[in-house]
Amino acid sequence: MNEDVDVSEYLTPRDVTTLPKRRGREASGFYPLVVEAFIASGEGAMQVDVAKIGRKPATVRSALVKAIKAQGCQDKVKVSLISDEVILVAR
Known about the structure:
With 91 residues, the chain is of the alpha+beta class. 34% of the residues lie in helices and 18% in strands.
């Protein structure tokens, strides 16, 4: 930026007590539902349609791993990323 710019015009005072309690992104409820649906299906392995979700394969894999850990079902399900395919596998 240029030194002639008054940066104070980019700042606005806020009362700390009016700030939202939680900042940042909220955990998605979608991925836990995917894990539950896979477990309920009884299949040995299923591919997740990453294109339909609209995210990168690594992002979907990461979100599914977090959902599996949050649900405490690491002993039932694992996630594999093979090439660009995200696959849920029963243990």
